[in-house]
Structures are given as structure tokens and as C-alpha cells.
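Need a sequence for this fold. Nothing fancy.
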């Protein structure tokens, strides 16, 4: 009898715990600083780990010091045009959509941080991968073997007797620091010169500076 009573009490406590836990989740206050009126956050995968992208909830949050500077020498840090040779320019909401597609298993899309690995380690967008654009830009030392490896092994292009076939190539979403950064535009122009279809190239012009200015989640490894 005693054992039955003890079992009953344990089940009762467990049941009440579940009820209270579910109530707490249901009554959890929504984020005050949302992405849009309908979207509070999105979940993506970054190097196999689940990351939640949302805006910083601290009303006193500030952009990181490295991206708060307004006056960099031009050249090379010149204001970029709004479009690059017919390539679509996108904003944060479009980028978030691409990131969500990638996280849901879309293997035909890559979101690429074109900065150096050292810079990307200081803060990058969750769900993106880092490929230094210089590895694709001949004028910056890229060699044909390295370019071929990236195009075939990572971008899904096919090479046959010196001719590139981009039929099954991935859609690439590229970014760098921001509207004063030429790395992503140079990378895009290099890809176009190789024959990469313009409709498979997207440019997040705002880059890290715009992303940080909205308080959106970044991933740092340093």
C-alpha cells in the first residue's frame, strides 16, 4: 500500500511539473525587439550547431567598435554601387530567407563570407561559410588550380576541356563588411568573368556593418 501511495505521489508531482512547464512556455513573453512584426527569430545551423538568429534585446546595445568607424581611406574602402552588373542586391530579410533554406537542407545555396578567415573569426553571420574572395580573384593572386577546386568541389560547377558548365552550380549569396567594402563585389565580378550565371549570384550589400547595426546574432570564434 505504501509503495502504491508513493508511486501515486511521484506521478502526481511529475504531472504537475509538466503542466507548469508547458504553462511557462505558453506564457513566455515574446521578444520586444523582433525581426519583423511576424518573425521574432529564426533557427539555423552553423557548422553543425543550432543557432538562433534574433535581434539583441538590450536597448543600450551598440554596434561593435570595429564597425562603428565611418571614415576609411578610399581607395580601397570606397562606397559601392547599389547593383553589380545585373546581380540581385538583397537585404536582411532576403538573406534570412536564404539562411533558413540552407538550414532546412537546401544544398543548392551557399551563403558566403568573402572576408579573410581572421576577420570572419571576429564575427560572422550564422549559417554562412567563409571563403576568402581573394582565392577566386586572379589579380589578387588566385591560381587556376585553386579556382577550379572551389568551383567544382564547393560551388557545383563542372569543367570539361577548359569550358565551364554552370547548369548545376549553386546559388551564391555573398557579403563582406558593408557598403564601403569591395571584397564581395570583386569576388562577384571575378565569378562573372568565369561565366558564372548572374541569376545565381546574390549580393548582401549591407554586410556585417548593417547586420551588426540591427543587433542581429553573430558567431565569433575569437
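Here you go.
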Amino acid at each position: 500500500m505504501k509503495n502504491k501511495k508513493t508511486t501515486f505521489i511521484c506521478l502526481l508531482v511529475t504531472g504537475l511539473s509538466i503542466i507548469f512547464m508547458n504553462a511557462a512556455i505558453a506564457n513566455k513573453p515574446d521578444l520586444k525587439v523582433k525581426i519583423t512584426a511576424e518573425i521574432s527569430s529564426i533557427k539555423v545551423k552553423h557548422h553543425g550547431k543550432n543557432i538562433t538568429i534574433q535581434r539583441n534585446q538590450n536597448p543600450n546595445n551598440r554596434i561593435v567598435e570595429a564597425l562603428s568607424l565611418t571614415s576609411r581611406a578610399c581607395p580601397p574602402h570606397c562606397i559601392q554601387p547599389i547593383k553589380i552588373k545585373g546581380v540581385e542586391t538583397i537585404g536582411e530579410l532576403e538573406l534570412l530567407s536564404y539562411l533558413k533554406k540552407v538550414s532546412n537542407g537546401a544544398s543548392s545555396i551557399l551563403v558566403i563570407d568573402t572576408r579573410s578567415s581572421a576577420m570572419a573569426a571576429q564575427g560572422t553571420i550564422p549559417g554562412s561559410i567563409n571563403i576568402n574572395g581573394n582565392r577566386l580573384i586572379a589579380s589578387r593572386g588566385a591560381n587556376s588550380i585553386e579556382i577550379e577546386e572551389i568551383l567544382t568541389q564547393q560551388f557545383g560547377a563542372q569543367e570539361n576541356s577548359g569550358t565551364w558548365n554552370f547548369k548545376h552550380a549553386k546559388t551564391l549569396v555573398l557579403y563582406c563588411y558593408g557598403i564601403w567594402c569591395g571584397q564581395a563585389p570583386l569576388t562577384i565580378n571575378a565569378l562573372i568573368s568565369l561565366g558564372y550565371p548572374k541569376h545565381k549570384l546574390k549580393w548582401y550589400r549591407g554586410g556585417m556593418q548593417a547586420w551588426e547595426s540591427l543587433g542581429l546574432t553573430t558567431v565569433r570564434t575569437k
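For context: The beta strands are 42-46, 49-53, 88-90, 109-113, 129-130, 158-160, 163-165, 171-175, 201-204.
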